[in-house]
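Box 3.1 A note on notation
Throughout this textbook, protein chains are presented in two layers. The first layer is the amino acid sequence; the second is a token string describing backbone geometry. Keep the layers aligned when reading.
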Amino acid sequence: MNRTDRLYALVEELRVVSPRPRSAAWLARRFEVSTRTIERDVGALQASGVPIWAEPGRTGGYAVDRAHTLPPVNLTAGEAVAMAVGLHRLRGTPFASAAGAALRKLVAVMPAADVAEAHRLAGRVHLIGDGPATPVPALVAGAVTAGRLLRLGYADRVGAVSTRDVEPLGYLGNARHWYLVAWCRLRGGPRCFRTDRIVSVRPLAERVTRELRLDELDIPRERVRALSLV
């Protein structure tokens, strides 16, 4: 955990147990740092205006004024896109409009660089129908975000497994499945890999520069829509 994330987490930890205090030793164990680091972090938070005070004594420690702090809104690009995918499934319900407004509010307070990255990642997600329910392997998701070559073990419809080096370009989801859209170096063209048939994933060091082009896939364009954060 980097220092910025730790500072956010430290305030949230103190908020959760407020008005009870947490000792520096307890917090050091929680965040796997030294007590001196915790003391420096608390000092930095106090200097920035966070209402943290120290309670002396054997059962003392640091406490925060819960009434004057708010939980941090610190969405990553991946978290924003995950929310957009989840909210997509509310289409047609009485809550669809409110859900979209909530996402827009959260995106509005994200740092500009994170917003740009979230829009970039959302542009790699395309949905058909109401969206899928099957999971995407974490290593696959990480490679799409980072733009890294993948070596897949992939099972065909009869279970035969082949090894494919692929350039991950994005996702395609329908009502039943997620597909990894990638340039397959074995086949020399774009392919859609059903994520529940991926039996092994190995990220490689090579960067991917190719971009996703839906017109290269044999899917009627009118059936596909891009995920949106607005």
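The chain is about 35% helix and 25% strand. The first strand starts at residue 52 and ends at 55.
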